[in-house]
Amino acid sequence: MNFKRGGLVSWAAVLIVTITLAVITSILLLQAALSYSLSEIRDKVDVTIYFVPGASEDGITILKTELEKLPEVAEVSYVSAEQALALFRERHKDDYPTIAALDEIGSNPLGAYLNVRARQVSQYETIAKYLQSENALTPGGEQIIDKVNYYQNELVINRLNSIIAGAQRLGFLITLLLIFISAVITFNTIRLAIYISKEEIAVMRLVGASNSSIRGPFMVEGAIYGVVATLFTLILFWPVTHWLGRNMTSFWGLDLSKYYLSNFWQILIILLIFGVFLAMISSYLAVRKYLSK
User: Fold this and answer.
1) What is the DSSP string of 70-122?
2) Rounded CA gap, 78 and 61, in Å?
3) Of 193 and 127, which is predicted with more confidence?
């Protein structure tokens, strides 16, 4: 086969396809780490609704139920006045004056509150507007809301939303750019590998071979490039992700080794399809140049 006869040129083509697939794998892992980090950030952002001390449980329950009906709301958690007091004591357990003042009061000065988490960071504004409505302010005809902390955190939430949107757009553009550059390099390398067979192609044309008969072996050779490069890439990233998982989990927030192993078959299929398709289409285009002469 041409793959064997090509020698170093064929292996150079495999190396370039391997580098291309390594770029694709790196992008997949980076996108996974980015998505995980953004998801963690989203989970830490919420809107807190503080109720006046002594607010009725029925009114709070009505508001909680209404909020859960909103399509923008992912989760609503309730913290009772007693739980709020216990959490406050825990946070300030080393602050003796504060604890002493609290004990001096004798009663619970804190009210219950709801933590509301939206499906998307951009949806907190919609939730805040709902909380300004009459139905939200006086559920069951009773004024129970003391304050909503959205407006204190509005600037942070809006900036976070912009950062998330910008990071996703930038990641998408970088992905397209790297894939395009890798594809061009792969095409030129495979074209060089086929160049050494141009006399063989000319002889086959002289003896009357059809274009498909000439093109077929080179496309099969391209598929072999893709398969071999996929195997090399998977073997390469096995120790790489293991090292990253052991040393960089605290930085990424995601154990890339566990992610790689748990998504191994999906990554294999993506690389195999992309590698074989890229190498075969490159072979097709490169051979076409000599068939058109």
Assistant:
1) STTEEEEEEE-HHHHHHHHHHHTTT-HHHHHHHHHH-S-----EEEEEESSGG
2) 9
3) 127
Distance CA 277, CA 230 (A): 12
Q: Which is more confidently placed, 124 or 153? A: 124
Q: What is the pLDDT of residue 290?
A: 66
Q: Which positions ≥6 away from 289 have C-beta within 8 Å?
A: 191
Of 20, 33, 17, the residue nearest 178 (C-alpha): 20
| Continuous segment of H or E residues that includes residue 56 | none
Class of 53-143 in CATH:
alpha beta
Place of tokens 């594809």: 183
pTM: 0.62
The SS3 assignment for 32 reads: helix
Each residue's pLDDT tens digit, 162-179: 776 777 777 778 777 877
Position 232 scores a pLDDT of 92
**Token code pair at residue 48:** 């807190």
Q: What is the pLDDT of residue 269?
A: 92
Strands of the sheet with 73-79, listed across from one edge? 73-79, 113-118, 47-51, 145-148
Q: What is the mean pLDDT of the chain?
A: 78
CB 13 within 8 A of CB 189: yes
In 3D space, the residue among 120, 131, 129, 115 whose CA is nearest the CA of residue 157 turns out to be: 120
Q: CATH 3.30.70 region(s) of the chain?
A: 53-143
| Contact criterion met (CB below 8 Å) for 169 and 14 | no
The Cα 25–Cα 263 span in angstroms is 12
First to last CA, the chain: 24
